Amino acid sequence: MTQASDMHRGIVASQAAADAKVTEQTVNRATIVKVNGSIFMPSDTRFVWHTPLDGGSPALIFNEAVYAQEGLPVLTGIPLGSITLQILGRDPERVIDSPGNKNVQALSNPHGADHAWAGPDLTYLYLEALVPLMVYPSNGTFFINVVNGDYIYNNVRKTFNGALSQDISSHQPTTGQGTRYLGVYLDSNNTLQFIAGALAALLTQVPPEPAWPTDAFRLSVIQLDEDQTGLIFANVVNRRVIWATETLSVGGGGTPGPLDDVARIEAELDLVITQIAVDNNL
User: Fold this and answer.
1) Of 64, 81, 115, which residue sits at a domain end?
2) What DSSP letter does each residue of the chain carry, written as one string?
3) What is the biggest distance separating any 2 CA atoms in the chain, rounded to whole angstroms?
4) Is the CB of residue 95 less than 8 Å from the CB of residue 108?
5) How far apart, in whole angstroms, are the C-alpha atoms of residue 168 and residue 164?
6) Is the pLDDT of residue 186 over 80?
7) Does the residue 242 lie in any domain?
8) Environment class of residue 189 by beta-carbon count within 10 Å: exposed (0-12), middle (13-18) or buried (19+)?
9) What is the domain-level CATH number for residue 20?
10) Are residues 101 and 157 in the same domain?
């Protein structure tokens, strides 16, 4: 088969598929492949070769959604309002679950491996970066907001709907008092509460931890100094945990016990840590 006829066949096949699907958005699975030694259409690299997962010959398809690489699992379809069959994005299930596929470069942009484990620019995920139940300041004032999210409390999953513009100015130390931590937590009724910690005389000191109530599900502490004029992100110190145990599911204090339920800190990322009836000796 000549290169010209090869390209023509691919374009005709793609357009035929598009003509049949202009009235609906159908998502299919496919894999980017090489034809005649290249994944690209020679005259236009916006078109790449792909093979449908359910079988069939390689065909050209429009792509502006992914960094094209041979073997990359993708989702294809016709976006509503378009007549062009195109790659919609990576196929996340196959990217994650491909047996034995550990080649990070094959599944991400070229710089992706730099940020992966053992890469030169390793990316760490800090708890402060997790959005659900995050406490954050509001525009440099003494107001704070709390993001909605799910959490485990006494082995029961609860949902907090979030809170906006919570004024904490009354907890700021007055002149000469120094600094303190203000604890932010959810109580047993799923209600947002605050508890002021003891004062530290010097602004350079780390304030003592608040005396958390036994029913507290801790979210954060906020450092308040006597001379502050507002809050910044650096004043908020995380106290959330990403798992729930028999003793840690209330407030995050006590002695670690067995993991006994599903703990989920997230709504968008599906970060799930699950263990059921773990032996106490582990």
Assistant:
1) 115
2) --HHHHHHHHHHHHHHHHHTSTTS---EEEEE--BTTBSEETTEEEEEEEEETT----EEEE-SSS---TT-EEEEE--TT----EEEEE-HHHHHH-TT---GGGTS-GGGGGGSTTSTTPPP--GGG--TT-EEESTTSSEEEE--EEEEETTEEEEE--EEEEE-GGGSPPTTS-EEEEEEEE-TTS-EEEEEPPPBSSTTSPPPPP---TT-EEEEEEEEETT-SS--GGGEEE---S--BTTTTTTT-S----B-SEEE--SSS--EEE--S--TT-
3) 86
4) no
5) 12
6) yes
7) yes
8) exposed
9) 2.40.50
10) no
17 and 98: one domain? yes
pTM: 0.52
Bigger pLDDT: 24 vs 277: 24
CA-CA distance, 277 to 217, in Å (whole number)? 22
Separation between Cα atoms, residue 279 and residue 223, nearest integer Å: 39
Give the type of residue at 83.
I
State the total domains in the chain: 2
> Average pLDDT in the 222-249 region?
79
Contacts 24+ apart (CB under 8 A), 88-94: 88/27, 89/65, 90/66, 91/29, 94/29
Residues 194-209: what's their mean pLDDT? 92
φ and ψ at 17, to 5 degrees? -65, -40
Token pair in block for residue 36: 């005649």
Residues 146 and 260 in one domain: yes
In this structure, the answer to whether residues 139 and 262 fall within a common structural domain is yes
Query: Same structural domain for residues 237 and 143?
Result: yes
Beta-bridge mates of residue 35: 38
Distance in angstroms (rounded) separating the CA atoms of residues 244 and 248? 6
Residue identified by tokens 């470069």 is 105
Residue 120 lies in a domain: no
Q: Is residue 12 part of a domain?
A: yes
The residue range of the domain holding 95 is 3-115
**Residue 206 confidence (pLDDT) above 60:** yes
